[in-house]
Amino acid sequence: MLYRGIEVTYESIREWCQKFGQQYANQLRRQRPFIADKWHLDEVVVTIKKQQYYLWRAVDAEGNVLDVLLQRHRDTRAAERFFRKLLKKQGFVPRVIVTDKLKSYAAAKKQLMKRVEHRQHKGLNNRAENSHQPTRIRERRMRRFKSPGQAQRFLSAFGPIRDHFHPKQHQLTAIALSPTITPTI
């Protein structure tokens, strides 16, 4: 744009992100070719204005963020609300869910997803635990989230957009990882 003589400020870019970010994230979700039937669920504490909130996150077996929800509580009702939102957005019930040992997951699963296999183990849920890291980095860079609404809006768009622009290292070929390697035929 600068090449064409158009100067854009950081504020303009921020406003464009607020206006078009969620729409772009929704398009990326719709274009996703496949969602694995094994979901990893986890929650993490986020402090906003000196109050604790819980960021619930669902990740598929490939590490793609399926959905996030920011809530004040970490009980069965909160888990049920997260499950309902997740099922409505994905449109299908998974084969397996993997969680940590929080009892709220089992109680909510018993009511909403009776036939789904539930694996509770501390070490099995690393896929969801690792998906929190980019959020934590971004949270520090933004110097904390300013309000729960701002955090929910940002995080629901941030996951799919980050997955799109930062591909998983384990899914790339050796040639794509190292620009110095040239293929020989």
Automatic annotation (TrEMBL):
One of its GO terms (molecular function) is DNA binding. Residues 38-164 form the DDE domain. It comes from the Bacteria. The keyword Ribosomal protein does not apply. It comes from Chroococcidiopsis cubana SAG 39.79. One of its GO terms (biological process) is transposition. This is IS6 family transposase. NCBIfam families: transpos_IS6. Keywords: DNA recombination, DNA-binding, Transposition.
